[in-house]
Amino acid sequence: MKKDANLLMFTVVFSALLSGCATTPTTKSGPDTTDLLYDGKAATLYEARTTVKSSAEAMDLANSALQVGDIDRALYRYITAYELDPESYEALYKVGAIHAKQGHLDRAALAFDMVLKQEPDHAATLEELGLIDIRRRRYQKARGHLNKAVEENPKLWRALNGLGVLADLDKDFDTAKEYYGTALKLYPGSPMILNNLGYSEYLQGHWQRAQSYIEAALDRNPGYKKALLNLGLILVREGAYERAVAAFDRVMDRSRSYERIGALCMAEGKYDAAEHYLNLAISTSPTYYKEAFAKLEQLTALRTGAIKSRVSVPEPPQEPKRFEASSYDLSFMDVAPGRTEKDGGHNADESLTLSRLTLDRSLYVTTTEPLLADNDYHTRKKLLAQSHQSAHE
Question: Could you give the maximum distance between any two Cα atoms of the chain, in Å?
Protein backbone atom coordinates (compact mmCIF):
# COMPACT_ATOMS: atom_id res chain seq x y z
CA MET A 1 0.00 0.00 0.00
CA LYS A 2 2.84 2.32 0.93
CA LYS A 3 4.53 1.46 -2.36
CA ASP A 4 1.38 2.40 -4.31
CA ALA A 5 1.16 5.68 -2.43
CA ASN A 6 4.77 6.53 -3.28
CA LEU A 7 4.16 5.66 -6.93
CA LEU A 8 1.08 7.89 -6.98
CA MET A 9 3.03 10.77 -5.44
CA PHE A 10 5.84 10.35 -7.97
CA THR A 11 3.31 10.37 -10.83
CA VAL A 12 1.69 13.57 -9.58
CA VAL A 13 5.04 15.38 -9.13
CA PHE A 14 6.33 14.20 -12.52
CA SER A 15 3.10 15.31 -14.24
CA ALA A 16 3.38 18.73 -12.62
CA LEU A 17 6.95 19.07 -13.87
CA LEU A 18 5.91 18.13 -17.38
CA SER A 19 3.03 20.59 -17.23
CA GLY A 20 5.35 23.38 -16.13
CA CYS A 21 7.83 22.61 -18.89
CA ALA A 22 5.07 22.60 -21.50
CA THR A 23 3.57 25.94 -20.52
CA THR A 24 6.67 28.04 -19.75
CA PRO A 25 7.72 28.84 -23.35
CA THR A 26 4.24 30.06 -24.30
CA THR A 27 3.76 32.35 -21.30
CA LYS A 28 4.16 35.97 -22.41
CA SER A 29 2.57 39.03 -20.89
CA GLY A 30 3.62 41.46 -23.62
CA PRO A 31 6.51 42.52 -25.88
CA ASP A 32 9.89 42.05 -24.18
CA THR A 33 13.12 43.96 -24.82
CA THR A 34 14.12 41.62 -27.62
CA ASP A 35 10.84 42.09 -29.48
CA LEU A 36 11.36 45.86 -29.37
CA LEU A 37 15.06 45.93 -30.24
CA TYR A 38 15.63 42.93 -32.50
CA ASP A 39 14.12 41.25 -35.55
CA GLY A 40 16.92 39.01 -36.80
CA LYS A 41 17.73 35.32 -36.62
CA ALA A 42 15.55 33.53 -34.07
CA ALA A 43 17.94 30.56 -33.90
CA THR A 44 20.74 32.85 -32.78
CA LEU A 45 18.48 34.37 -30.14
CA TYR A 46 17.53 30.94 -28.79
CA GLU A 47 21.18 29.97 -28.53
CA ALA A 48 22.08 33.22 -26.81
CA ARG A 49 19.33 32.85 -24.23
CA THR A 50 19.95 29.17 -23.46
CA THR A 51 23.76 29.15 -23.26
CA VAL A 52 24.58 32.40 -21.42
CA LYS A 53 24.53 32.28 -17.63
CA SER A 54 25.36 35.88 -16.67
CA SER A 55 25.29 39.42 -18.01
CA ALA A 56 29.08 39.66 -17.87
CA GLU A 57 29.43 36.48 -19.93
CA ALA A 58 26.95 37.79 -22.49
CA MET A 59 28.89 41.07 -22.77
CA ASP A 60 32.15 39.19 -23.38
CA LEU A 61 30.53 37.02 -26.05
CA ALA A 62 28.94 40.09 -27.67
CA ASN A 63 32.27 41.91 -27.81
CA SER A 64 33.92 38.86 -29.35
CA ALA A 65 31.19 38.56 -31.98
CA LEU A 66 31.52 42.24 -32.80
CA GLN A 67 35.29 41.95 -33.24
CA VAL A 68 34.86 39.32 -35.95
CA GLY A 69 32.02 41.22 -37.66
CA ASP A 70 29.15 38.99 -36.56
CA ILE A 71 26.82 41.92 -35.93
CA ASP A 72 23.63 39.91 -35.61
CA ARG A 73 25.03 37.63 -32.92
CA ALA A 74 26.62 40.57 -31.11
CA LEU A 75 23.30 42.38 -31.05
CA TYR A 76 21.59 39.35 -29.50
CA ARG A 77 24.27 38.97 -26.88
CA TYR A 78 24.06 42.62 -25.84
CA ILE A 79 20.28 42.35 -25.52
CA THR A 80 20.70 39.18 -23.49
CA ALA A 81 23.21 40.96 -21.24
CA TYR A 82 20.66 43.66 -20.56
CA GLU A 83 17.84 41.18 -19.91
CA LEU A 84 20.02 39.30 -17.42
CA ASP A 85 20.96 42.56 -15.72
CA PRO A 86 18.48 45.42 -16.38
CA GLU A 87 20.93 47.86 -14.80
CA SER A 88 23.49 47.12 -17.52
CA TYR A 89 22.93 50.31 -19.47
CA GLU A 90 26.27 49.85 -21.25
CA ALA A 91 24.77 46.84 -23.05
CA LEU A 92 21.81 48.99 -24.10
CA TYR A 93 24.17 51.68 -25.36
CA LYS A 94 25.93 49.10 -27.56
CA VAL A 95 22.55 47.96 -28.92
CA GLY A 96 21.69 51.54 -29.81
CA ALA A 97 25.08 52.13 -31.42
CA ILE A 98 24.73 49.07 -33.64
CA HIS A 99 21.25 50.08 -34.76
CA ALA A 100 22.44 53.63 -35.44
CA LYS A 101 25.28 52.41 -37.65
CA GLN A 102 22.82 50.21 -39.54
CA GLY A 103 20.37 53.08 -40.04
CA HIS A 104 17.68 51.62 -37.78
CA LEU A 105 16.97 54.97 -36.17
CA ASP A 106 13.77 54.04 -34.34
CA ARG A 107 15.37 51.10 -32.55
CA ALA A 108 18.53 53.09 -31.89
CA ALA A 109 16.57 55.96 -30.36
CA LEU A 110 14.57 53.53 -28.21
CA ALA A 111 17.73 51.94 -26.82
CA PHE A 112 19.34 55.31 -26.16
CA ASP A 113 16.20 56.60 -24.42
CA MET A 114 16.32 53.54 -22.17
CA VAL A 115 19.94 54.36 -21.32
CA LEU A 116 19.08 57.95 -20.38
CA LYS A 117 16.33 56.76 -18.05
CA GLN A 118 19.08 55.13 -16.00
CA GLU A 119 21.91 57.60 -16.69
CA PRO A 120 20.51 61.00 -17.77
CA ASP A 121 24.00 62.47 -18.16
CA HIS A 122 25.53 59.68 -20.26
CA ALA A 123 27.47 61.86 -22.69
CA ALA A 124 27.99 59.34 -25.50
CA THR A 125 24.28 58.50 -25.54
CA LEU A 126 23.33 62.19 -25.63
CA GLU A 127 25.69 62.59 -28.59
CA GLU A 128 24.14 59.69 -30.47
CA LEU A 129 20.60 60.92 -29.86
CA GLY A 130 21.57 64.39 -31.06
CA LEU A 131 22.88 62.99 -34.32
CA ILE A 132 19.71 60.96 -34.78
CA ASP A 133 17.64 64.10 -34.11
CA ILE A 134 19.51 65.92 -36.89
CA ARG A 135 18.79 63.08 -39.28
CA ARG A 136 15.12 63.35 -38.36
CA ARG A 137 15.18 67.15 -38.74
CA ARG A 138 14.36 67.66 -35.07
CA TYR A 139 16.87 70.45 -34.79
CA GLN A 140 15.85 71.95 -31.46
CA LYS A 141 16.03 68.57 -29.72
CA ALA A 142 19.33 67.86 -31.47
CA ARG A 143 20.84 71.07 -30.16
CA GLY A 144 19.72 70.26 -26.63
CA HIS A 145 21.18 66.75 -26.69
CA LEU A 146 24.45 67.79 -28.33
CA ASN A 147 25.03 70.78 -26.06
CA LYS A 148 24.48 68.64 -22.98
CA ALA A 149 26.80 65.96 -24.39
CA VAL A 150 29.59 68.51 -24.83
CA GLU A 151 28.98 69.88 -21.33
CA GLU A 152 29.46 66.38 -19.95
CA ASN A 153 32.44 65.58 -22.18
CA PRO A 154 34.08 68.43 -24.16
CA LYS A 155 36.09 65.88 -26.19
CA LEU A 156 33.12 64.55 -28.16
CA TRP A 157 34.16 65.74 -31.60
CA ARG A 158 31.13 64.24 -33.34
CA ALA A 159 28.82 66.29 -31.12
CA LEU A 160 30.82 69.43 -31.98
CA ASN A 161 30.63 68.54 -35.68
CA GLY A 162 26.86 68.16 -35.35
CA LEU A 163 26.57 71.53 -33.63
CA GLY A 164 28.51 73.01 -36.53
CA VAL A 165 25.99 71.60 -38.98
CA LEU A 166 23.13 73.06 -36.92
CA ALA A 167 24.82 76.46 -36.90
CA ASP A 168 25.22 76.31 -40.68
CA LEU A 169 21.53 75.51 -41.03
CA ASP A 170 20.82 78.69 -39.07
CA LYS A 171 23.25 80.54 -41.39
CA ASP A 172 25.39 81.32 -38.34
CA PHE A 173 28.57 80.58 -40.26
CA ASP A 174 31.01 82.07 -37.74
CA THR A 175 29.69 79.86 -34.96
CA ALA A 176 29.73 76.86 -37.29
CA LYS A 177 33.39 77.48 -38.07
CA GLU A 178 34.20 77.61 -34.35
CA TYR A 179 32.53 74.27 -33.75
CA TYR A 180 34.26 72.64 -36.72
CA GLY A 181 37.60 74.12 -35.65
CA THR A 182 37.27 72.72 -32.13
CA ALA A 183 36.26 69.33 -33.50
CA LEU A 184 39.26 69.36 -35.83
CA LYS A 185 41.63 70.00 -32.92
CA LEU A 186 40.23 66.92 -31.22
CA TYR A 187 40.39 64.85 -34.42
CA PRO A 188 43.14 66.39 -36.58
CA GLY A 189 42.86 65.75 -40.28
CA SER A 190 39.35 64.28 -40.17
CA PRO A 191 38.08 64.16 -43.78
CA MET A 192 34.52 64.48 -42.47
CA ILE A 193 35.14 67.72 -40.60
CA LEU A 194 37.23 69.16 -43.45
CA ASN A 195 34.38 68.36 -45.84
CA ASN A 196 31.90 70.17 -43.61
CA LEU A 197 34.18 73.19 -43.31
CA GLY A 198 34.43 73.25 -47.10
CA TYR A 199 30.69 73.01 -47.56
CA SER A 200 30.14 75.78 -45.03
CA GLU A 201 32.45 78.02 -47.10
CA TYR A 202 30.61 76.94 -50.25
CA LEU A 203 27.33 78.09 -48.77
CA GLN A 204 28.85 81.52 -48.26
CA GLY A 205 30.10 81.72 -51.84
CA HIS A 206 33.77 81.41 -50.86
CA TRP A 207 34.73 79.05 -53.68
CA GLN A 208 38.51 79.06 -53.21
CA ARG A 209 38.39 78.47 -49.47
CA ALA A 210 35.75 75.79 -49.98
CA GLN A 211 37.91 74.05 -52.56
CA SER A 212 40.92 74.17 -50.25
CA TYR A 213 39.08 72.35 -47.46
CA ILE A 214 37.50 69.81 -49.81
CA GLU A 215 40.84 69.00 -51.42
CA ALA A 216 42.40 68.60 -47.97
CA ALA A 217 39.67 66.06 -47.16
CA LEU A 218 40.43 64.20 -50.39
CA ASP A 219 44.17 64.20 -49.65
CA ARG A 220 43.35 62.15 -46.55
CA ASN A 221 40.65 60.01 -48.15
CA PRO A 222 40.92 60.05 -51.97
CA GLY A 223 37.77 57.98 -52.43
CA TYR A 224 35.55 60.10 -50.18
CA LYS A 225 32.34 60.29 -52.23
CA LYS A 226 30.76 63.27 -50.49
CA ALA A 227 33.92 65.37 -50.88
CA LEU A 228 34.22 64.42 -54.56
CA LEU A 229 30.63 65.51 -55.17
CA ASN A 230 31.28 68.79 -53.36
CA LEU A 231 34.44 69.37 -55.37
CA GLY A 232 32.43 68.89 -58.56
CA LEU A 233 29.85 71.44 -57.39
CA ILE A 234 32.56 74.01 -56.69
CA LEU A 235 34.29 73.43 -60.03
CA VAL A 236 31.01 73.89 -61.91
CA ARG A 237 30.49 77.17 -60.06
CA GLU A 238 33.98 78.26 -61.14
CA GLY A 239 33.33 77.24 -64.75
CA ALA A 240 36.00 74.49 -64.65
CA TYR A 241 33.70 72.00 -66.33
CA GLU A 242 36.19 69.37 -67.47
CA ARG A 243 37.73 69.21 -64.01
CA ALA A 244 34.20 68.85 -62.64
CA VAL A 245 33.63 65.93 -65.02
CA ALA A 246 36.79 64.28 -63.67
CA ALA A 247 35.58 64.71 -60.08
CA PHE A 248 32.08 63.39 -60.77
CA ASP A 249 33.47 60.50 -62.83
CA ARG A 250 35.05 59.09 -59.67
CA VAL A 251 31.62 58.46 -58.12
CA MET A 252 29.29 58.00 -61.11
CA ASP A 253 29.41 57.06 -64.79
CA ARG A 254 30.32 59.60 -67.47
CA SER A 255 26.78 60.14 -68.75
CA ARG A 256 25.52 60.93 -65.26
CA SER A 257 28.45 63.34 -64.80
CA TYR A 258 27.45 65.19 -67.97
CA GLU A 259 23.79 65.26 -66.93
CA ARG A 260 24.72 66.59 -63.47
CA ILE A 261 26.84 69.41 -64.91
CA GLY A 262 24.16 70.28 -67.47
CA ALA A 263 21.52 70.56 -64.76
CA LEU A 264 23.74 72.75 -62.56
CA CYS A 265 24.60 75.03 -65.47
CA MET A 266 20.94 75.34 -66.43
CA ALA A 267 19.98 76.21 -62.86
CA GLU A 268 22.61 78.96 -62.84
CA GLY A 269 21.48 80.42 -66.16
CA LYS A 270 24.52 79.17 -68.11
CA TYR A 271 22.39 77.91 -70.93
CA ASP A 272 25.01 77.28 -73.63
CA ALA A 273 27.09 75.14 -71.30
CA ALA A 274 23.93 73.38 -70.09
CA GLU A 275 22.91 72.48 -73.64
CA HIS A 276 26.41 71.20 -74.43
CA TYR A 277 26.60 68.85 -71.46
CA LEU A 278 23.03 67.61 -71.71
CA ASN A 279 23.63 66.70 -75.34
CA LEU A 280 26.80 64.90 -74.29
CA ALA A 281 24.80 62.94 -71.70
CA ILE A 282 22.33 61.88 -74.40
CA SER A 283 24.99 60.88 -76.91
CA THR A 284 27.14 59.04 -74.39
CA SER A 285 24.43 56.74 -73.07
CA PRO A 286 20.83 56.06 -74.10
CA THR A 287 20.10 55.35 -70.43
CA TYR A 288 19.91 59.06 -69.70
CA TYR A 289 18.24 60.06 -72.96
CA LYS A 290 14.76 60.59 -71.53
CA GLU A 291 15.99 62.44 -68.44
CA ALA A 292 18.46 64.66 -70.27
CA PHE A 293 16.03 65.33 -73.12
CA ALA A 294 13.41 66.46 -70.61
CA LYS A 295 15.94 68.92 -69.22
CA LEU A 296 16.69 70.17 -72.74
CA GLU A 297 12.98 70.90 -73.17
CA GLN A 298 13.07 72.82 -69.88
CA LEU A 299 16.13 74.66 -71.14
CA THR A 300 14.25 75.79 -74.23
CA ALA A 301 11.44 77.11 -72.03
CA LEU A 302 13.94 78.95 -69.82
CA ARG A 303 15.60 80.56 -72.83
CA THR A 304 12.22 81.68 -74.12
CA GLY A 305 11.47 83.17 -70.74
CA ALA A 306 14.81 84.94 -70.71
CA ILE A 307 14.15 86.57 -74.07
CA LYS A 308 10.68 87.69 -73.01
CA SER A 309 11.95 89.08 -69.73
CA ARG A 310 14.47 91.27 -71.55
CA VAL A 311 11.77 92.59 -73.85
CA SER A 312 8.69 93.18 -71.77
CA VAL A 313 8.83 91.72 -68.28
CA PRO A 314 10.10 94.00 -65.48
CA GLU A 315 13.02 92.45 -63.62
CA PRO A 316 11.92 91.21 -60.18
CA PRO A 317 13.88 92.35 -57.13
CA GLN A 318 17.18 90.66 -56.28
CA GLU A 319 16.74 87.71 -53.98
CA PRO A 320 18.97 84.81 -52.97
CA LYS A 321 18.75 81.53 -54.82
CA ARG A 322 17.49 78.51 -52.96
CA PHE A 323 18.97 75.07 -53.26
CA GLU A 324 19.39 71.81 -51.41
CA ALA A 325 22.35 71.76 -49.03
CA SER A 326 22.92 68.03 -49.21
CA SER A 327 26.58 67.44 -48.49
CA TYR A 328 27.11 67.57 -44.75
CA ASP A 329 28.50 64.52 -43.02
CA LEU A 330 27.74 63.13 -39.59
CA SER A 331 28.86 59.87 -38.03
CA PHE A 332 27.66 57.35 -35.52
CA MET A 333 29.92 55.84 -32.91
CA ASP A 334 32.10 52.91 -33.86
CA VAL A 335 31.04 50.19 -31.44
CA ALA A 336 34.22 48.12 -31.53
CA PRO A 337 35.19 46.80 -28.09
CA GLY A 338 37.86 48.73 -26.23
CA ARG A 339 36.61 52.13 -27.37
CA THR A 340 35.76 54.51 -24.58
CA GLU A 341 33.83 57.71 -24.31
CA LYS A 342 36.95 59.30 -22.87
CA ASP A 343 38.85 59.55 -26.16
CA GLY A 344 35.90 61.08 -28.01
CA GLY A 345 35.05 57.81 -29.71
CA HIS A 346 37.04 58.27 -32.92
CA ASN A 347 39.12 55.72 -34.72
CA ALA A 348 42.14 56.34 -36.92
CA ASP A 349 40.54 54.57 -39.90
CA GLU A 350 37.43 56.70 -40.29
CA SER A 351 36.48 55.19 -43.65
CA LEU A 352 36.06 51.74 -42.10
CA THR A 353 34.56 52.51 -38.72
CA LEU A 354 32.22 55.44 -39.16
CA SER A 355 28.83 55.30 -40.79
CA ARG A 356 28.18 58.49 -42.74
CA LEU A 357 24.83 60.18 -42.97
CA THR A 358 23.61 62.78 -45.39
CA LEU A 359 21.69 65.78 -44.21
CA ASP A 360 19.30 67.44 -46.67
CA ARG A 361 18.16 70.97 -45.90
CA SER A 362 17.07 73.95 -48.02
CA LEU A 363 19.31 76.99 -47.54
CA TYR A 364 19.91 80.24 -49.34
CA VAL A 365 23.08 81.52 -50.99
CA THR A 366 23.41 85.14 -52.04
CA THR A 367 24.03 85.67 -55.73
CA THR A 368 24.62 88.80 -57.77
CA GLU A 369 23.06 87.33 -60.90
CA PRO A 370 19.85 89.18 -61.90
CA LEU A 371 16.82 86.96 -61.80
CA LEU A 372 14.43 86.74 -64.72
CA ALA A 373 10.69 86.24 -64.66
CA ASP A 374 9.34 84.69 -61.44
CA ASN A 375 8.33 81.47 -63.15
CA ASP A 376 11.85 81.14 -64.59
CA TYR A 377 13.32 81.56 -61.11
CA HIS A 378 11.16 78.82 -59.64
CA THR A 379 11.95 76.47 -62.52
CA ARG A 380 15.67 77.02 -62.11
CA LYS A 381 15.41 76.63 -58.33
CA LYS A 382 13.72 73.26 -58.84
CA LEU A 383 16.42 72.15 -61.28
CA LEU A 384 19.20 73.09 -58.90
CA ALA A 385 17.50 71.20 -56.10
CA GLN A 386 17.26 68.15 -58.36
CA SER A 387 20.93 68.35 -59.29
CA HIS A 388 21.95 68.45 -55.64
CA GLN A 389 19.54 65.67 -54.77
CA SER A 390 21.57 63.09 -56.68
CA ALA A 391 24.42 63.71 -54.23
CA HIS A 392 22.44 61.58 -51.78
CA GLU A 393 23.24 58.36 -53.60
Answer: 119
